[in-house]
Amino acid sequence: MPLRKRNKSPPNHSLDMESRPEPSNPYAGSNSGLSSTHTEDTAGNGLDVGGQSPPPDYNPLQRNVSNFVIDTVFIRAALKSSEVRYHLSSTVHTDISELRIRRLSSTESRSIATTSQLVSFLSSDTLYTITRPPFEPSIMIIKGSRKSTLPGTIQMRHRLRKWKVEQEHCGKIFQLFQLSERTRSRSLQWKGEDGTLLADDVWENEGTPVERPMLKLSQSIKLSTQELLITCWIARIWYFTTKPMLYPMHTKD
User: Fold this and answer.
1) Whose C-alpha in 60, 62, 136, 192 is 20 to 30 A from the C-alpha of 83?
2) The most confident of 68-72, 91-95, 110-114, by mean pLDDT
3) Rg (CA), the chain
4) 126 beta partners
5) What are the distances in angstroms from CA 152 to CA 17, 141, 146?
6) Domain limits of the chain?
7) Which pLDDT score, from 0 to 100, does residue 110 have?
8) Contact, 114 vs 99, CB < 8 A?
9) 234: number of CA atoms within 13 Å, CB side?
10) C-alpha to C-alpha distance for 176 and 223, rounded to whole angstroms
11) Could you give the 3-state DSSP secondary structure of residue 80?
């Protein structure tokens, strides 16, 4: 599923969608590039994209989370509280053709932490859907489902140990992330289109493989950018579950 030729002069269009005006073109007029300006982290706060009010007993989850880990179908904050922030429709080790991610409300997060009750995946709350084209094994396709998600189609292509992450929207191609493998530290750096370091994808800690994949954000970023970055991180991990010999954890210096 090759994309068309990349547009070399993208318009003012970015992952930072907090200040974007409303339609006719809801994605016009935003600043270019990934924003590193801090915005209050509302992950799991019970607010949906439509601005629905939280319940009376609302208590926000801890803000400014910078590290995330995968725990079966949940993505947790890598903190002492281990708050559950996101929910996957399936584990990344499942041989399926589609994987979805949604943000959990604070009520759901606390319920998971205090009880053993299973939480159903609500398709209506899906943020992004990741698919694997059956005849193009080196490509992952991501599409957003909410007003807060990036429009168009996001394509992740893996070739010669390198990743290319691009967005196709309105007939134009935009680079989203640059990925750079750091062999000595056994990690992968996620950078913005301008080369700004956004996060480290860590699979070893002091020479020992980590029990759970971890994404370490290097700076405060918009929630919309964070959620796209987490989705791409999940897509990359899912990609390698069917190609274990290519997973960076198994490479040699």
Assistant:
1) 192
2) 68-72
3) 18
4) 102
5) 14, 11, 12
6) 67-250
7) 83
8) no
9) 35
10) 16
11) coil
138, 160 contact by CB (below 8 A): no
By residue count, the chain amounts to 253
DSSP labels, 187-248: EEEEEETT--EEEEEEEEETTEEEEEEEEEE-S---HHHHHHHHHHHHHHHHHHHT-GGGSG
Whether domain 67-250 has CATH 2.40.160.200:
yes
* Rounded Cα distance, 182 and 198, in Å: 14
Dig out the tokens for 228 from the structure: 């796209």
Distance set, CA 134 to CA 2, 131, 140, 142 (Å): 14, 9, 10, 14
Residue 131 token pair: 């698919």
- Contact 169/163 with Cβ under 8 angstroms? no
pTM as predicted? 0.71
Are the beta carbons of 141 and 131 closer than 8 angstroms? yes
